[in-house]
Amino acid sequence: MPSASALRKQIELSLERHFPAALTPQPRTFRDNAPTGIPQIDALLNGGLPVGAISELTGPESSGRTSLALAFLAELTREPRVCAWVDASDAFDAESAAAAGLSLGQLLWVRCKPRIRIARTDTRLSSFRPNAPAPSLQTLDQALRATDLLLQAGGFSALVLDLASTPPEHGYRIPLATWFRFRQAADRTRCSLLVLAPRPFAQSSAALVLECSPVSAHTTGATVLNGFSYQVLTGRERFAPPQNPAQSLAKTPARPLSPSRPLTPTLVTARKPPLSTWSANASWANVSNKESA
User: Fold this and answer.
1) Structural contact between residues 259 and 268, judged by C-beta atoms closer than 8 angstroms
2) Rounded-to-integer distance, Cα 230 and Cα 263, Å
3) What is the pLDDT of residues 130-182, one digit of tens each?
């Protein structure tokens, strides 16, 4: 009886005209990265966010998701390049974006608002239909349609899909086919798609998932707020360079994060900095990465 390796080779030889690597997986490819403008984050991600792929910035409110996205767009608009921000909750603050260094002249801002359906009865206006979609679902649908149109059109170096205020139960209802279409369009147009959300929604279509967490607020006295400190953990990094086996043996399991104590990194490798601090209006502290499940 032929061995398993002989059978494998025979099958691949018979299918090589149609499937050159029927049983042998293709080697993992590497993508170009675009710097975020934050040296510590760029060092953590080996250069920045992937180009032509989906990156998810997740976390609770005031966790640094928007600050990181603004820093990334500010770095791109300095070149200058055209970017877009699809705002599902109409919460984008143009003044804060300009203060972060983003050139508003290079930014397309898509504001999504709920459509209230009204009907005229005699001389009074009745409320919208009881079976009409909720406002949050209406704006989510608008945001997804706008993102699809902009990705298919091309010409944008980066596009931010801001779903930060979208309830997780609504975000989980986004079909996987939608995320797959976004991934294909981003790869074709070389557009970096950033998704701001409380939880990871894109699942396997995301090339990178960053989990942002607040650490502390910096104040002067009791009334002056100077900035914040954040922690960033990598939940998934599909295009990360392969690690040295000797470095993998040196890893220590990441402890569960507890909100009652300061967030400190426990995963240490020779490839990525175990501890970094970025000081500005908002600061990033305790930058590390963790194993994905």
Assistant:
1) no
2) 9
3) 444 555 788 999 999 999 999 999 999 999 999 999 999 999 999 999 999 99
Angle at 211 between CA 153 and CA 189, to 5 degrees: 15
* Single-letter amino acid code for the residue at 223: T
Q: Sort residue 46 into left (φ over 0), alpha (ψ -120 to 50) or beta.
A: left
Looking at residue 246, its pLDDT comes to: 38
pLDDT tens across 272-292, in order? Answer: 333 333 444 444 444 444 444
CA distance 97 to 78: 13
The angle that helices 176-189 and 135-153 make with each other, rounded to 10 degrees, is 30
Distances (CA, A) of 68 to 49, 157, 274: 11, 16, 19
More confident residue, 259 or 113: 113
Distance CA 44, CA 233 (A): 9
Q: Tell which residue, 222, 254, 259, has the closest CA to residue 235.
A: 254
Reported as a pLDDT band with limits 50, 70 and 90, residue 254 is very low
Instruction: State the pLDDT at residue 242.
Output: 53
Predicted TM-score (pTM) of this structure = 0.70
Cβ–Cβ < 8 Å for 79, 223: no
Question: How high is the pLDDT of residue 220?
Answer: 80
Class of domain 31-116+133-217+232-239: alpha beta
CA gap 53, 191 in Å, rounded: 7
d(CA 198, CA 56): 10
* Measured CA angle at 106 (ends 101, 109), to 5 deg: 95
Q: Which residue has the tokens 């995301």?
A: 206
Rounded Cα distance, 248 and 234, in Å: 16
Strand partners, 119: 126
